[in-house]
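Hi R.,

Here's the chain you asked about this morning:
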Amino acid sequence: MTLRTGIAVGAALALVLLVPAAPVQASPSAARVLDMRTSPDIDSVRARAVALREQLASLRDRAEWTAERLADARGQLAAATTSAITADQQLANLQGASSAAEIDIAHRVRAIEQSGGAAALFSQALEADEITDVTSNVAALNGVLTTDLVRADDSEAAATQMVQVHARLDQISDERAVLTSRASELAQQAHDLVSEQRALVAAADAKVAHLAAAIERQAERQAENNVTPWNGDIPSGPTPYSGPAIAAALSKLGSPYVWGAEGPSTFDCSGLVQWSYLQAGLVLPRLASDQYFASTPIPTDQMQPGDLLVYAYDTSDPNTIHHITMYIGNGQMVHAPHTGDVVRIAPVYYEGLYGVARPGL
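And here is the predicted structure, written out as C-alpha cells:
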C-alpha cells in the first residue's frame, strides 16, 4: 500500500470516527462500523496512532540529521582525496626535477675535478696574455660556478619541499582514515534509523498506521494554514547584514520545509539561514554547526535581531548540533522547523540551546 493510499484510508477512518450514528436499523457491515465508532478501543487506537506518529517524527529528524552529517563527511573525504592526488603529482614533479638537477650537478662537478678543480681553472684563466682576457675569463668562470651553486641550492630546496609534501601526504592519509571511519559509522546509523522506522510501521496495527498517516497529513495542512504573518517593521539588528537577512527570512513565511533544500521556495533550517544571509550579502557555510562556528558567539542574554540560535541533542557536544534559527526580537525567532511544517515565527525556547552567535561581526 502506498503512503497516499494509507493517508486516504486513514482519513476515511478519521471521518468515520466523526460522523454520528444514524438511528436506523444497521446492516451487518454498518453494524461493524457502528461497533468501531462506539468501541471503547477507539481511544486506544487514536492514542497509539499519535504515539506512532511522534516516534516516527523523532526517528525521521535523527535520520535527517545523520544524513546531513554523512553528506558533509563524504564531501570532506572527496576534498581530502583531491588534495592527496594533487600532492602526489607535486611530489612526482619535485622528484623528477631534483633527480635531473642532481645528475647535472654531478656531471659538472666531475668535469671540474677532471680539470684540476676550481683552483686550477682560475689559474688557467689568469694565464691569459691580455688583462681584458683575464678579466673576461675570471668573470665567465665565476658565472659557471655561481650557476652550479644556484642549482645546488635549488636541488636542496626541492628536497626540502619533498619532505614537506611527504608530511602533508601522511597528514592527508590520517584525515582520510578518520573521515572514512566517520562516514561508515554515519552510514550505518542512517541505515539503522530508517530500518527502525520501517520496523515501527510494520509492527503497527493497520488501523493505527493509517490513522497516524491521516494525523500527519492533517498536521501538515494545519501547518500550511496556520502561519502568523509579520506586520511590523523589520528590525535593523547589530550588523549591516542583520536587517536584510531578517527581511529575507520573513519573506519566506509559509514555505514548506524540505530536508536539504536551500531555497528559494523550500528550505531546511540551515538552508533558510544561509539563503537569508546570502540575500543580505553575507556568505555562510551550509551546515548549522558550521554556520554557528563561522559567526561570533554572543551571551544568550545579549542576543539581538539577526543572531543565530543553535540547538543540540547534547548541549555539551557540538557534534550533536541539529537545528538553527534566527532571532527577530521580542522573544521570537523565524525558522524552518522540520518535515511536515513550514517556515514560521515561533517563541524562542531554551531547551537544548547550544549557543547564540552573530554572523558578520
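One quick note: The chain is about 65% helix and 10% strand.

Cheers,
M.
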